[in-house]
Amino acid sequence: MDTFQIVLDSPPPGCVYVPNSTISGYVILCSSKMVKARQMSLRASGRGYSTFWKEKRCKTNELELYKSDVTYLKIEQILWKPKNSEEKLPIGESRFRFSIEIPGDCPPSFEGRNGHIRYKLKAEITVPWGFDKTAEQRFLIGPIIDFIAKPNLGKKIEIIVGKNPSSDVRVKLSCPKVAYFYDEFISITAEITNDSQLQISWIESGICCITTYTAEETGQMLIKSTKSDTHTRKYQVEKIKNNHIGKRKFIFERTIPIPTLMPTITKCNIITVQYSIYVYSSTVAPFAEFHGEIGKSKIKSSGALTTLVRNATKNTIDTSQLTLD
Question: What domains can you pick out in the chain, each with its CATH number?
Answer without folding.
Answer: 3-141 (2.60.40.640), 151-309 (2.60.40.640)
